[in-house]
C-alpha cells in the first residue's frame, strides 16, 4: 500500500464519473432546456479517434459543442463517442475520458478543468507567494466569462 493518498487522481476519477453520468443521462433523455456542453479534449491522446482532417486542423486540442444537433451518442466507462456536424459534414468522434481537458455547461455556469501532469508539475514549482499572486479573488472587478470553472476550494469551509 502506498504511503500517501493520491487525492488528485481520486478527484479526476470522480469528476470524469460525473461527466459520464451527465452524458449517459443526455443519451437516454436528450438535452434538457438550454443545457449544452463545450468539451475540450487532447487530440494527441493515443485513444482519441477522429477524422484525419480534424486531427490535422487541431493537432493539440479541440473544443466541440454538443447543443442543437448531435447523433449516435454512446457512453462507456472509458469514454464517449458522438457524431457531430462540421460544416454540413457529419463526423464521428471517439473520446476517452482521460483525454478530456474541460467540460463546460455555460447555461448553468458549470465547468470542470482537468490539470495535466505538466500543469501539476508547474504548480509544484511555484512557491506560496506565486500562488497568492495568481488568485482570482485579487481582482473582483475583472470581467467574468459566461461560464467559469468551479474550484473545489470555494466549497471548503
What does this structure look like?
The protein is of the alpha+beta class. It contains four helices and seven strands, in the order H-E-H-E-E-E-E-E-E-H-H. The strands form two sheets. Strands 2-1-6-7 form a four-stranded antiparallel beta sheet, with helices on one face. The protein has a three-stranded antiparallel beta sheet with strand order 3-4-5, covered by helices on one side. The protein is globular. Residues 119-148 have low confidence and may be disordered.
Per-chain topology:
Blueprint: H1 7-29, E1 37-42, H2 52-57, E2 61-66, E3 71-75, E4 79-85, E5 90-96, E6 100-105, E7 110-113, H3 117-125, H4 128-133
Antiparallel strand pairs: 1-2, 1-6, 3-4, 4-5, 6-7
Task: Give a quick precis of the structure.
The protein is an alpha+beta fold and 157 residues long. The protein has 4 helices and 7 strands.
Amino acid at each position: 500500500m502506498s504511503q500517501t493518498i493520491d487525492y488528485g487522481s481520486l478527484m479526476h476519477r470522480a469528476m470524469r464519473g460525473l461527466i459520464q453520468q451527465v452524458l449517459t443521462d443526455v443519451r437516454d433523455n436528450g438535452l434538457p432546456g438550454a443545457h449544452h456542453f463545450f468539451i475540450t479534449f487532447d487530440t494527441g491522446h493515443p485513444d482519441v479517434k477522429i477524422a484525419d482532417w480534424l486531427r490535422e486542423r487541431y493537432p493539440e486540442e479541440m473544443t466541440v459543442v454538443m447543443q442543437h444537433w448531435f447523433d449516435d451518442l454512446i457512453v462507456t466507462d472509458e469514454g464517449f463517442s458522438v457524431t457531430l456536424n462540421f460544416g454540413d459534414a457529419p463526423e464521428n468522434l471517439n473520446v476517452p475520458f482521460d483525454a478530456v481537458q474541460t467540460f463546460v455547461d455555460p447555461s448553468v455556469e458549470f465547468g470542470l478543468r482537468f490539470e495535466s501532469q505538466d500543469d501539476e508539475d508547474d504548480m509544484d514549482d511555484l512557491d506560496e507567494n506565486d500562488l497568492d499572486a495568481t488568485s482570482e479573488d485579487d481582482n473582483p472587478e475583472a470581467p467574468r466569462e459566461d461560464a467559469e470553472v468551479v474550484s473545489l476550494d470555494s466549497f471548503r469551509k
